[in-house]
Amino acid sequence: MAQTEKKGGLLRKSSASKKPLKEKVVLMYDEIFTTEDPSKCNPRFWEELFLMKVNLEYLEGKLEALDGEELMKIKDNINCLFQHCIQALGEEHPIRVVNALQTLCALIRGVHQKNKSTSGFDIINMLVGFDKAELCMKNLMESLDSLLCAEGSESLKSLCLKLLLCLVTVTDNISQNTILEYVMINSIFEAILQILSSPLSRREHGYDAVVLLALLVNYRKYESVNPYIVKLSIVDDEPTLNGMGLVIAQALSEYNRQYKDKEEEHQSGFFSAITNMVGSMFIADADEKISVQTNEAILLALYEAVHLNRNFITVLAQSHPEMGLMTAPTSPVPTTPVTPLGTTPPSSDVISSAELPLDADVQTSNLLITFLKYSSIVMQDTKDEHRLHSGKLCLIILTCIAEDQYANAFLHDDNMNFRVNLHRMPMRHRKKAADKNLPCRPLVCAVLDLMVEFIVTHMMKEFPMDLYVRCIQIVHKLLCYQKKCRVRLHYTWRELWSALINLLKFLMSNETVLLAKHNIFILALMVVNLFNMFITYGDTFLPTPSSYDELYYEIIRMHQNFDNLYSMVLRLSTNAGQWKEPASKVTHALVNIRAIINHFNPKIESYAAVNHISQLSEDQVLEVVRSNYDTLTLKLQDGLDQYERYSEQHKEAAFFKELVRSISINVRKNLAFNTLSQELLLKEFSTIS
């Protein structure tokens, strides 16, 4: 018997003698694409259409193949199809609802493609008609809201969210998507919250719900009152906020796990054997391939939650028993990822399983720890544009956290100690830290470690000036809290001081190259003022008096760097050039550092001469420092513990506009045909009563 093959809506027998046969649904689509009303000859046309399995590919392709003029001729039929889809959403039979949802996806995507052409017709008019738009869209949003809130099929809820994501992301710039006005008027915010507060719904749909919310919050956020922003900012329901935190933590955790697996793959096995034979010439490429795709959508959701909702700050420190204590899934987890790393949600299998066995103490993990680990990965390589955006967003989130009083309280809490295994960039001059030897410390230590790591590892020709500025600002804000609340943090401050001095050294060594692109004096001033903060207020927040002595020792030991910086800024501030004013600010800021160097250096030289010692030990220098504090005179500098608070609208609007555009494109790409497949849905609804 001849086998039947299916392709593009055609059914054809393997013997090529007969004409190919079209599926019935394709024939019905063809009737819609004529100027005649398809229900004239067949009154049951629309009823029958929604019993047919949707051919997404054919329907979208047919819409895209028409030019604007041709599409306008069949506008009445398109409007009719759209309205019948909305009516079908209220049907009892789930198969009709499924087919209506899928048809709406194809319609919206197909028609929107025409918006890019020169015809420029209005998308709303094309889909529903201006006269019926308000009522139709109200009915559509109410139906979707009902389906999302009902206790029915999880597959239907999944399809509703896919349709909403399709609706939101049809344009690259979501603020130009006029259909979203109806999503603003007919809010589905409460439905999204309901999904996040229910463990079952959250596990199945949490990722899509969180990404949808993040995108809706960004619709015309600077131009008009966005109800999703208003509502998100006042949510105080603990299960809902915790649910949102869990979804974000799971997605970031999955990224971290995949990265760690790939890292281990590169370090051992076939690839490692080859590189050992050939040499290290391919290692740089290998490192870049460890992580190719960041998850900016979930990061945006975290940012919006932290930035807009003060109550969400508590979620950052919430431990996650669901992650560490659940049993492994019975069904096998696929080993080969079918999509790029980090672009899609973790599968329900992964979400059900034990979270990230990255630490020995995984049970005490929380969202902030997971986020810090994620940040340590994406901030390693800022050459790739997506990772640069991700790195910037990570630092913006940390900036918001560093400004929050409550966040600082738990960051610095001595009773909340964690072992945080951050990823460190492989560097020739340092050994890889042993994970097991990490101490348990307050979370602020991990934040400072992350900042130090960034400072040390990004001194390169393509200098990420903006990220460095944000990094130093975060450290400054944390110090301001410590000074204000007199928190004496037991931290290896020397590592920070050393990193900051090396940064100044780098800026001076590359003065000509960097000044061609950046005002490096902004960064130099911030670094010098961090030292001024330690000098002026260090006795109130450094852990011990000896820590304060060590600060002076580091300044004296590295005095050549400060001397060179002073010479550089003095030279530029005495010339009538563009750098005169910013350089002179650094000159004034160096006054106390120079006073320390000029006061102690002669004393140290004198001590060495009297005791006939050619080179003093650290203890001997510290002894000289301690015995000569009394005669040191320093100037009181104002405003060292003041900072400008973060403001998105005035400073970051362009960045977020571009970021949301990138996320919209990415989400749309991942709403591929296979993600809208009916196979599972039809199995679930295999009978029609």
UniProtKB/TrEMBL annotation:
It comes from the Eukaryota. It is found in: Membrane. Its main location: membrane. InterPro entries: ARM-type_fold, ARMD3-like, ARMH3_C. It holds the Pfam family ARMH3_C. One of its GO terms (cellular component) is cytosol. Residues 435-671 form the Armadillo-like helical domain. Keywords: Membrane, Transmembrane, Transmembrane helix. SUPFAM superfamilies: ARM repeat. This is ARMD3 protein. It comes from Nothoprocta pentlandii. The gene is Armh3.
